[in-house]
């Protein structure tokens, strides 16, 4: 059974007919070709690699059907940089070597961006706790935590300007 | 212009891979677009040991959108079985014959039994549900000791027992020599003032990467094209060529530019890629398979799983005089090309002496088939259980002697290097004691002991534990040829084009190690070009020179050396031509390459890098005599001696004797990794390795029930450490430049997890020393610690 949905993805409205059982992550990757959203755990919601923003809030796109996103707004990692300028979290991930293979990175960044929106001045413990839904197998998390803290500081400095 | 000479090697140059990976533009296996591809889904055994009576695929085949459903009977006459000549090492062992799909019977829960191919992955999943398999259950054996009993069910036809591999690694090559060595060891034990005997057990766990496996294959008239998650595309090409009787020069295997981690898991030759190649040949369309997490956790990624019955003899000061180890590895079904499960415990047995000066050893290893998934490689390749056993034993010895474990460990650390271990492994020149002393200084052991005493007076229990690790810095051909039937040399091509841009081609297939950055740093230093303008291409079996792949810390040792040699050859050629053009007679070495220019020894610029490149390639007139216009150089690097890296680890914990809960305060690693190309990358890989070691020790565990049913096939059940689980980490170095590489570099990172579990458990036992608690098996969790505390207090 197919259903037509209208979704705003990275600022652009797309209208597609999709099977009702299609997962949002498959819609993003296979229908829209936005392959920056990854899958690490095959629909358990444990690894966090598929994290995107639904109306600005981080969600795991393997835990939703595409039809549930009808009428909503989605941002993926590809849509995070604005006008060619990287988001401070993206920059900080490079500066602090917060990624190795890069497979968890999209979801990690999308989660961190949402977290910093609600918690602009987090403690280290708060950062670590905020990231428990995203598994990284390469970095041991230390540099990720440092990157998120640095991004928070950079964003606060920018807001103060 | 001396400012231009600042070398990039040794600096934390920001990773070049990150620009695409932080913006979602990486390209992993699942991201590769292939038009008109069919999707494959494997149907896997839902029992551990059973005869296949009948498979009914009619309903699956009838589902609209299904292109094919195949079983073992459909392929047994069509695809050659493994082992074949490209997947069998030279070690004497039983290499069980197998096909990509089970033929006759299944031997573990998760073994591929059938495969469904359909127009989309949802239909493939539906059809897989419709395949009906009628099994006749057979007795199951899931314990390696039970598998050795005379009445144990035997997994593989033609075998009299379940012993896949058995070897004595000490004393010589004949049974007589080994028996004589064993008698000498016995005599040392009989005369020694102290002997200890313990059984150490490390459970089944591994380093499952976040990205699972995947293959896209397309068989056309021009040959076989394969994209796959792999650490060794050239080896895969060889295997496909042999199995499908297609010339190697018609097989093109590419590892994707980006791979989501591997840590060893993507090195073997597995069943599934062979099946996917057969399917594209059969169906005449591209076929795609992306592994699910459940499949991955059930079929691969499982390592460690060894029992060590370890004995040591020591003198009154704590010097180890002799060591005896009987190792038993739970090898699973043992069907896995190149590694066959047992290559890891074999290597682990060879590395049992570690960086300790143990004069005499008697080490014997057996790997036994059971109804589990075959052991597959995981970072610290077979060595983690032995590290745990020996490092725990040193602490137990120290307690017995009433000495600080750090003191006893230091007494036993190798001082004479280079060294050949009692198992015949060559360690190159280094200074392990310098690394150890750096560790002790960094953790401030004396200060910690004071803090510990003060805390104990307040009823708090903190402790420190240590572990050490000599580990691979690449694997030399002398070791890799017998072990895997494959060479260890490094290879790379450096190409300069007519506009002076530089391309590096390497046949390895990195999965997060940052080769694009590190190799760019090497080339930029050698040729004086902008590292941002260097392109590094990896993992393409057609474009790159033959290479064994990315594993065993080969990048910083062998591959970087080949890149340096290739760049050096081109540099020398360009310098000669520039001097020739300037009518100067100096030696090529007098020319400096910096800032995109070639500068003569007297400081005068000769030409720019771009101009000389164009001049050589496009205007090859009046070249020095005997010289051609090629600015492409391929170099192969084979070290004179096998090389090693060295780590010493300290873990600090606080433990609660009432509840068994413990908290890791911090972890420090001191290491010798030789000259460092990129400190940030080295530190990052060390962090990752530490956490993998902790996660193995505390959380990860593949669990099988008594019927061999896997209970840990999701990331809910197979828990991996998250950000809130891990402590702060410190990484320090006491490096000795490697004498056998052109840049003095060593490979690093491969063995990092190995010594961590032993250090953690040593720390816990140190914290709880007043309670005389001893932990000899993993995993270590609060419930187990609480039980051990109860046993100790009852005891």
CATH topology of the largest domain in chain B: Aldehyde Oxidoreductase, domain 4
Major sheet characteristics of chain B: 7 strands, mixed
User: Globular, elongated, flat, extended or rod-shaped: what is the shape of chain B?
Assistant: globular
CATH class membership of the largest domain in chain B: Alpha Beta
Largest sheet of chain A: 5 strands, mixed
Shape of chain A: globular
SSE pattern of chain A: EEHEEEHHHH
% residues in beta strands of chain A: 15-25%
Specify Rg of chain B, calculated over alpha carbons. 28 Å
Low-confidence stretches of chain B: none
Helix content of chain A: 25-40%
Q: Which range best describes the helical content of chain B: under 10%, 10-25%, 25-40%, 40-55%, 55-70% or over 70%?
A: 25-40%
Q: Show unreliable segments of chain A.
A: none
Oligomer: heterodimer
- Tally the helices of chain A: 5
Mean pLDDT level of chain B:
97
Biggest interchain interface, per-side counts? A-B, 57 and 58 residues
For the record, the CATH architecture of the largest domain in chain A stands as: Roll
What keywords describe this structure?
heterodimer, A: 161 residues, Ubiquitin-like (UB roll), DNA polymerase, domain 1, 5 helices, 5 strands, globular, B: alpha+beta, Aldehyde Oxidoreductase, domain 3, 3 domains, five-stranded mixed beta sheet, 28 strands
Walk me through what this model shows.
The complex is a heterodimer of chains A (161) and B (795). Chain A has 5 helices and 5 strands. Chain A starts with a strand and ends with a helix. Chain A is 35% helix and 17% strand. Chain A has a 5-stranded mixed beta sheet, covered by helices on one side. Chain A has 2 domains: 78 residues, Beta-grasp domain (Ubiquitin-like (UB roll), Roll), CATH 3.10.20.30; 73 residues, [2Fe-2S]-binding domain (DNA polymerase, domain 1). Chain A has 161 residues and is α+β, with helices and mostly antiparallel strands. Chain A is globular, with a radius of gyration of 16 Å. By secondary structure, chain B is an alpha+beta fold. Chain B folds into 3 domains: 174 residues, Aldehyde Oxidoreductase, domain 4, CATH 3.30.365.10; 189 residues, Alpha-Beta Complex (Aldehyde Oxidoreductase, domain 3); 317 residues, 2-Layer Sandwich (Aldehyde Oxidoreductase, domain 4). In chain B, 30% of the residues lie in helices and 23% in strands. Chain B contains 21 helices and 28 strands. In chain B, the strands form 7 sheets. Chain B has a 7-stranded mixed beta sheet with strand order 3-5-1-12-9-10-11, with helices on both faces. A 5-stranded mixed beta sheet of chain B has the order 7-15-14-13-8. In chain B, strand 22 and strand 23 form a beta hairpin. In chain B, helix 16 runs parallel beside helix 17. The longest helix of chain B has 27 residues. Chain B is globular, with a radius of gyration of 28 Å. Chain B starts with 17 loop residues before the first helix and ends with a helix. The model of chain B has no long low-confidence stretch (mean pLDDT 97). Chains A and B meet through helix 2, helix 3, helix 4 and helix 5 of A and helix 1 and helix 19 of B.
